[in-house]
Amino acid sequence: MSADPTRAVRPRYPATWGDAAAPGASSTTRPRPDSIAAEGGKPTVLRSQQAYRQTPVQPGVPTGQGMDSQAVRDSMVERLRAMGGMEPTVLQAMLAVPRHLFLEPGLAAQAYLDNALPIGHGQTISKPSVVARCASVLLQSLGAKPGRVLEIGTGCGYQAAVLSRVAGEVYSIERIRALHELARRNLRALRLPNLRLLLGDGTDGAIAGAPFDAVLSAAACAEVPASWLSQLRPGGVLLAPVGQPQRLMGYRKTATTKVDSWCVEDAYFVPLKSGVL
Ligand code: SAH
Fold it and tell me: Is the distance from the beta carbon of residue 272 to the nearest atom of ligand 1 less than 6 Å?
């Protein structure tokens, strides 16, 4: 079993007991969209994760929650590996990033099931299999470790943390201020110096970091914004859910103005919206 680098800075999460969130513990088996309520609906109010973390827990005393166990994360990664087509470096990253820390306490027991879960403001954390798949497709299409990656749609910051472990540098942009701040809080303890969080409308990309080796959108668009392609370096790859019904599409910029595209698979993401909230 590999060491958990987060444990050194999180003494309140000792390995406790086994697989509370093991397969079959509870879950839906039907495919779920990677989204929940529309943003226009009433925002889901979640208890502050910060408050949860401030709950005094004595080091070495079991929390009784078990989702912090490395064994639970190991079994999630084994299930992802069994799906096939996943890059070993992505699976390594997912072993290291504690997904339960990105969730509201009432949902943390489901952290290592293959579920999209609410993070508030009508948005979701992507399913582990979607994160693994997108990052793997990016790496496979680039054929090398990406230098600089732009993620559209930080949400709670989970995928950004995974990407930061497989890429040289990651920019991640979010349009909802409360989520941008949530991601900042979630990521602080992980100390990922190569990850930059931006608040803004990702429809315009992130000119401050361009050109990018890769752009990955976690929100579905009707058409790919021109800025995403223009901010890619030649040879760079864009992966985004596009159209209705949604398809996860890949685009490779072959020269300054030429782009090859291909369909990866069906997709279920929350919509790309404009403006900053
Ligand atoms: N990356 C997340 C998934 C977040 S869901 C994870 O790790 O699980 C998609 C996110 O895209 C939402 O938080 C939503 O607010 C955001 N989003 C939608 N339109 C956007 C836009 N134009 N610019 C930036 N973020 C956007």
Answer: yes
Residue 256: its pLDDT value, please?
Answer: 75
Show me where the domains of the chain are located. Answer: 64-266
Question: What are the tens digits of pLDDT across the range 112-127?
Answer: 999 999 999 999 999 9
Do residues 136 and 161 lie in contact, with contact meaning Cβ atoms separated by under 8 Å? Answer: no
Residue ranges, the chain, pLDDT below 50: 1-64
DSSP-assigned beta bridge partners for residue 215: 150, 238
Contact 238, 232 (CB under 8 A): yes
Taking each helix axis from N to C end, the angle separating 70-83 and 128-142, rounded to the nearest 10 degrees, works out to 60
Measured by CA distance, the residue closest to atom 8 of ligand 1 is 125
For ligand 1, say whether the CB of 240 is within 6 Å of any of its atoms. no
Q: What is the pLDDT of residues 225-237, one digit of tens each?
A: 999 999 999 999 9
In this structure, which amino acid lies at residue 7? R
Q: Which fold has domain 64-266?
A: Rossmann fold (3.40.50)
Q: Which atom of ligand 1 is nearest to the CA of 153?
A: 11
126 is catalytic: yes
